[in-house]
Amino acid sequence: MASYGWQMGAVLAVFIVFQVQEAVSKDGGIPYTTITVDQSGHGNFRTIQSAIDSVPSNNNHWVCIHVKAGVYREKVVVPVNKPFLFLKGDGAKRTFIVWGDHLSITQSPSFSVMADNFVAKGISFMNNYKLPALKISNPRKPEVAAMIFGDGVSFYGC
After folding, report:
1. 61-98 residues labelled b (16+ CB within 10 A) or e (exposed)
2. Which of 13, 110, 121, 147 is least surrounded by CB atoms within 10 angstroms?
């Protein structure tokens, strides 16, 4: 009985290696779908939220949402049933998500991620409820730019 243990382990290891190789694309990366967001209408969507909403519920493959440079004045929520999203901007100094909410800490974020397995790169998140540069003198309230609830969430160059 013990002599079969290593053989089963070897068979399982070979099976796993073949499964992983099948999941990897020909160029060595993981295959994914790309959706483009462009306010000028040259992409698949004009708003980030509509691009997120277009991803199937309980998605189990990576989807890249490429957000072209610009200021996107919208509240963005990645719901728990939209995992495996990669939000890629054209640079943190060129791509912005801006909203000005202040009701509470959990209600005010301009950007919220509830889903697991999310990556953002090259994008800035702002809550401009009380922005001194605009000479807005609203009363002091909680104002959150981004709130994260999911596991496996990463931000790069944001």
Report:
1. ebbbbbbbeeebebbbbbeeebbbbbbbbeebeebbbb
2. 13
Mean pLDDT in consecutive groups of 10 residues from the start of the chain, 158 residues:
45 34 48 91 95 94 96 94 96 90 73 93 85 58 77 92
Q: Is 143 exposed, middle or buried (0-12, 13-18, 19+ CB in 10 A)?
A: buried
User: How many residues are given for the chain?
Assistant: 158
How far is Cα 115 from Cα 81, in angstroms, rounded to an integer? 6
pTM beyond 0.85: the answer is no
